[in-house]
Amino acid sequence: MQEFTKFPTKTGRRSLSRSISQSSTDSYSSAASYTDSSDDEVSPREKQQTNSKGSSNFCVKNIKQAEFGRREIEIAEQDMSALISLRKRAQGEKPLAGAKIVGCTHITAQTAVLIETLCALGAQCRWSACNIYSTQNEVAAALAEAGVAVFAWKGESEDDFWWCIDRCVNVDGWQANMILDDGGDLTHWVYKKYPNVFKKIRGIVEESVTGVHRLYQLSKAGKLCVPAMNVNDSVTKQKFDNLYCCRESILDGLKRTTDVMFGGKQVVVCGYGEVGKGCCAALKALGAIVYVTEIDPICALQACMDGFRVVKLSEVIRQVDVVITCTGNKNVVTREHLDRMKNSCIVCNMGHSNTEIDVTSLRTPELTWERVRSQVDHVIWPDGKRVVLLAEGRLLNLSCSTVPTFVLSITATTQALALIELYNAPEGRYKQDVYLLPKKMGDVGPWPFLCHRMSLSIISPATSTSPACICLRLMPT
Amino acid sequence: MQEFTKFPTKTGRRSLSRSISQSSTDSYSSAASYTDSSDDEVSPREKQQTNSKGSSNFCVKNIKQAEFGRREIEIAEQDMSALISLRKRAQGEKPLAGAKIVGCTHITAQTAVLIETLCALGAQCRWSACNIYSTQNEVAAALAEAGVAVFAWKGESEDDFWWCIDRCVNVDGWQANMILDDGGDLTHWVYKKYPNVFKKIRGIVEESVTGVHRLYQLSKAGKLCVPAMNVNDSVTKQKFDNLYCCRESILDGLKRTTDVMFGGKQVVVCGYGEVGKGCCAALKALGAIVYVTEIDPICALQACMDGFRVVKLSEVIRQVDVVITCTGNKNVVTREHLDRMKNSCIVCNMGHSNTEIDVTSLRTPELTWERVRSQVDHVIWPDGKRVVLLAEGRLLNLSCSTVPTFVLSITATTQALALIELYNAPEGRYKQDVYLLPKKMGDVGPWPFLCHRMSLSIISPATSTSPACICLRLMPT
Amino acid sequence: MQEFTKFPTKTGRRSLSRSISQSSTDSYSSAASYTDSSDDEVSPREKQQTNSKGSSNFCVKNIKQAEFGRREIEIAEQDMSALISLRKRAQGEKPLAGAKIVGCTHITAQTAVLIETLCALGAQCRWSACNIYSTQNEVAAALAEAGVAVFAWKGESEDDFWWCIDRCVNVDGWQANMILDDGGDLTHWVYKKYPNVFKKIRGIVEESVTGVHRLYQLSKAGKLCVPAMNVNDSVTKQKFDNLYCCRESILDGLKRTTDVMFGGKQVVVCGYGEVGKGCCAALKALGAIVYVTEIDPICALQACMDGFRVVKLSEVIRQVDVVITCTGNKNVVTREHLDRMKNSCIVCNMGHSNTEIDVTSLRTPELTWERVRSQVDHVIWPDGKRVVLLAEGRLLNLSCSTVPTFVLSITATTQALALIELYNAPEGRYKQDVYLLPKKMGDVGPWPFLCHRMSLSIISPATSTSPACICLRLMPT
Amino acid sequence: MQEFTKFPTKTGRRSLSRSISQSSTDSYSSAASYTDSSDDEVSPREKQQTNSKGSSNFCVKNIKQAEFGRREIEIAEQDMSALISLRKRAQGEKPLAGAKIVGCTHITAQTAVLIETLCALGAQCRWSACNIYSTQNEVAAALAEAGVAVFAWKGESEDDFWWCIDRCVNVDGWQANMILDDGGDLTHWVYKKYPNVFKKIRGIVEESVTGVHRLYQLSKAGKLCVPAMNVNDSVTKQKFDNLYCCRESILDGLKRTTDVMFGGKQVVVCGYGEVGKGCCAALKALGAIVYVTEIDPICALQACMDGFRVVKLSEVIRQVDVVITCTGNKNVVTREHLDRMKNSCIVCNMGHSNTEIDVTSLRTPELTWERVRSQVDHVIWPDGKRVVLLAEGRLLNLSCSTVPTFVLSITATTQALALIELYNAPEGRYKQDVYLLPKKMGDVGPWPFLCHRMSLSIISPATSTSPACICLRLMPT
């Protein structure tokens, strides 16, 4: 039962950890918080479950939660109009007819909408989770009930993780011809265990930084044997994952964890890149007094011209109510800073990794940690001062808020378009290389008009009279 | 056991409903969502519970939840600096020494901070809940563990409700001399059942609209037999309960229920009073396109000058993604409007009561209701169109978001000051009438300096270098 | 020729100064800057001028400037839609037919639109200026050319001032039956010199604080012998003269005088009333870092919740680039503050009078004053430090920017409506007292529909599809 | 006297026009409006003038205006701290000692600060104007009075233009070794007439798009015989000339020309590039309702997420109060659009050239043009409708507002640094090519520390405690 952990990857256990922490960085624990994970200690691998149509072609926590999961999917559909309109369009044409897609992503309500859209376009899908914590069990159950071969649950062991991936790939009488990956673990598994599968694969679509990095390495080493599409580096994804998304999730994450009032609070934001810009704009708008630290002169200039005082962290550390890091650097907030914060100061990280706040320096005997709520720790100094640390310094927006469905919709639509393009591309259009999605797909492929429309629909905020649709009308077709 | 529901009030059952829905309007269900209410079906009234010091002078859901509740109280203390500094000050002087306060309020982490502050100032307290749903069981347990005589749990029956109040008032060898009420039910109960208690009562402090209304009626009828303090109509409370609070809670409420992205969404806000101003400012700041409906010419002018298009609801109803009511009127959103909304439109109410959206008109056979999440219903038209109705049209901010601790801190501090003032006032200062808290308390009472400081501290946002403290320094003392 | 200065008012010369400085506070010198005042030293009173129709019933600087003035009036008409639609409506009905109005106001393009509207409604008008500096000579010429009996020019002496008023009132064969006043000087003159005129007067319409104050004093003393309408205290006027107007004019005034860039500048605004709120909002929006000083706790709270740091002036005086006063108090900026400002700091006043900045303290031998531009002085310290003082501490928005036509349009329309109402009111509706314009005029008067429309049109921003018109549609008629 | 117009350039007269209109696009007429150009019809070339030190080595309109011009220069110095601190630093070291700079730029108060700084650094300067209209005569007089050899006045003829340039280059006993150009006309003249001068020239510094374009052409053709520095394409210049500058100048330009109130106005901004973003942000902040037209999907998405409705121009053209173009395209606003605008609609251009509004289509017999103010035309339709056209469709910010001194300071400092670098660079560092200023100059040149400091000082907003200085402290030195 433990065989899959023995799988000889180059970097072993650390490779897994890293791929999880870097590709998906942190679990979507808040989105997953609707999941009741405590009720049942039996491993899904040992359960016998059947959906209402009699199929057992799946492995989820509890198929009986399907109804609840269906509701979550329906909520998600409300803000994923591009995928839904793609689905409608597919009633006549089936651009993925014959496609056999093996996927490995977070399994949430939003990815469920993607998976069911791929099915509606004609594809057969087998799916596993790219993170051992991020699966919404009810959503997985709903997918299983709807007939998708899904193998995932919240709280997988490392062995479970690889077992699930294996169950998606290694099937009698079914061979994948497309890969949709998030983090590169699925791709890695196929490379190592089933290299022959690549003979049939028409392409890989990869979303994450880590996965894309791995693909470029393969390509450089001459080992990439199929075309791959880099979804990570599209403009829309970059803007949304940073500026627009963080503008909303900083508020959401702080509110859900601390119920803090923003009005009148003094906040210092470390770093004025896209993430910092989003955080600052939102907090300023709600009445906080915001300071910025920044070492790049151009970004500092922008902060200055946007009306923020640019300071050294040490200048304001005694007076601020909230400290937010988003620099991409290490140890931006040091133990010395933490020592000087006032009582009840909130500290959190919106940056790239969990190293911006020197949390390690707080794990010393003289400080008491008190877990007061999920993702909220009070760190208590000998004199009684408390610092409120969120998500132990990990990414606040992934740990303590949900990513807006609309943002995920953009990535999901791009993934669907990439799959359609790779699957239908005439031979020779794509070599064994890593590609960016063409900005305008109108000129190429068997689905030019569809894709053209869709690439624009990506930006449509859920309404037929929306700006995007107006854009569409402005563009030549 | 059911005897208390038989209690002959004038309006009977409806009186209770009204007092609950009007005084506290809606339960703080979101704040209470941390409460696990499903585990135990035994009524607290039938349980034998003892705290760690051996006392049984309370009735709560589960005394074992005290530790968790203590954590919630500690979180709340972080943003209630005025009460905490009042508490510190009381270490020498005990302005409420000898006070026996019977209270009836929501029982949440924030009111717990108030109650424990009153105790620190020298008072003895007995407490019940003013709403059958709003009690945070863990917080009640923490209060009981700390020795407060608290009688409250989430999900009380109507009989339980009056029983709890009665347990606070009707005690051998202990007689209340102060009342702190929220909604007027406690006051009402004492009037009807124990009128003699008023001989010892030095004053009533009342927070809610409904309770204050009842007091004025009593006063008008010549039946008010003690002084009463109207906390509801203070400037700070009005501003905070409306403009500043709603500016934050509209975002919080929408996000927690629907995960909707605000950027690019088209929103119509019905009504541009203080609540509407708050909602509009927040949504505009986060990139929504906001329309306003307003019939008052001055408010319409303000909306116009603030950069919002003032429209008739029917003009934009087909295109908007979100509809928010805050007019204070009835049936602002009619069935006809609902019929014309587009698929996935979100409808919610931030106004005064639950009648702004004509929800009744949606309870017809041709429409299907689907509860997709707590406080979220999809109402489905025959053609498949879904409208997303939040909190069944009740107040979104009370039902689906937490009220910021800082806001509650203001009211709580005002309540404490009112109690101090009434309890210490020399005879003759207050007659049998309803009073507003004096704007400056410096000239009166035995605690002039304290109260003066406190009335300023109310606005202090949790920091010793805060604006309020600077104000303080500017003011003559 | 100098006889009019000998006129025995109670307060003599100071009365005049005060009425000018308080009612109109400062001259609209910027609006008047298009006026070429240097070419001609001959007093208009000594000139013989005739308009193109042969009339000499006026006294202006130079009738030949009429064409230029007509252009200015046409520009003003573009943003005064309410008056223009009132004018159109009057083509059939002449609600002021028979009215003989004597007026005394600033004479600018905007008041010219008012005067010509009154004429179009059927009135005969005679007009003088309420301020010796504020007349736009070209506009006065254009009015004279159009046949209005106007007596005003820029740079009148005190004797000229009263002479012009007298020429309006004291006419053979013509007796006024309505008064439109701004500051009360005209009313005062009639009271003292021609009390019999009041027998025919149906009412006084007064706009300024000072004038209204005088009327209430008369009323209190039992000496008010006709009804008077207080236009000053209407909600729209208050909001516009303060919040909305200052939000724009602070930017305009600073830019025109100093060409300063707002982005990144540190600004302190003294006072957070309506004027301060407007200044802060505008500067914050354009990227300035804004501090607020405020002693009123409620206003300080608002500043705090709006995201401004509330400080003591001395805390930030060394670092700020701009200091703006709008407190209504005296000596808010003292010589000590001025001594501590850094080089090139800009100091200006948006408040009530010219006493907020202690300018007198700067008129000492060790400081050098250098007039670098109209309304701009460099005050130079012995060490070379320069402070940039605008308008010598007088009101920046009146001295150095134009008041937006739309704002003036609101007052002008209100004045016109008040004249119509008073002139047409049935006997007995108004006593010898001071009235506010009824909020809704629909129920009263011979022009109910007209007035109802007009009171709404006041808020119409120049467009037939404007918010206000939509409001209109929402209102019952 | 007319000989210089006969100078045989390739493109003759049109070359001149183009170079003027493209390099400097439009004259700084507003800044120049302080100039009294009407008093004197004698050509400066025919006047004999001497400054107070007896020198006649200049040619300006009127040397007697020097005092007024000195005041303007002093105002400008207040917001040009980087140049001033560069000047102070040069008291010991003279990095431009021996430099003989011939310059051709706009001659305004801000460039005067640059020229005088170059002199303070040790250079000798001879200067002419790059635009026949943009010279501030008083400033030119002040420079002449201070001993600079300046040859420029407002309203030069084409012959005058080349004559002034020639007088700077063609001097007995003085030969330039550096060129500072804006538009390339000076460089062009030297190439054609005095190619031998290039033997001594160490480098050219060029600011404008056009001039840089010409330099790249020369370089490509192998004809560039000295190193050249492209100042135009620095990040700071790009951001300032577009986003930050336009955010302020759109308000300033509209206000100075029309006195329009922004609050409540409906505005359509065509194009959401950096200029459009600046315009939209400012107008939204002041209460306007802003629509955006945009054809690029990414920019449209940004507009959408920033809260602006993205529309087709024809959808809103009937209802808007203001139309602003900033697309960089031609005929964005067509005659058809103009025909459909409502009365009093304001139309202006903030974009790249004067072709965005099809002004030519308005020069037809049925339309009447009425010049109502400098830079403001009413175009009147047969039915009386007026459209308010600003600056005849030329750039509003250059024609009708001043460019903030701080913005010009950035470019000026960059120019000074480029001159220092080129003049002091060891042989071989720069070839005969076009260079960008190194982002960090600390590693190179004889003035590493100075330049390093200065490149940071560029962003310092006039205060020693400013953000930029804090940046400075953060940076390693």
UniProtKB/TrEMBL annotation, chains A, B, C, D:
Residue numbers spanned by region Disordered: 1-56
Cofactor(s) this protein cannot do without = NAD(+)
A Gene Ontology BP annotation from the UniProt entry: one-carbon metabolic process
Biased amino acid composition, Low complexity: 17-36
> GO CC terms on record?
cytosol
CDD domains xref list: SAHH
The name on file for this protein is Adenosylhomocysteinase like 1
Keyword annotations for this protein, in alphabetical order, are: NAD, One-carbon metabolism
Record the organism: Otus sunia
Q: Which family does it belong to?
A: Belongs to the adenosylhomocysteinase family.
The UniProt record gives the binding positions of NAD(+) as G273, E274, V275, G276, K277, G278, E294, N397
Q: Which domain of life is it from?
A: Eukaryota
The question of whether Cell inner membrane is a record keyword is answered with no
How and how many cofactors are bound, per the record note? Binds 1 NAD(+) per subunit.
What transmembrane ranges does the database entry give? none
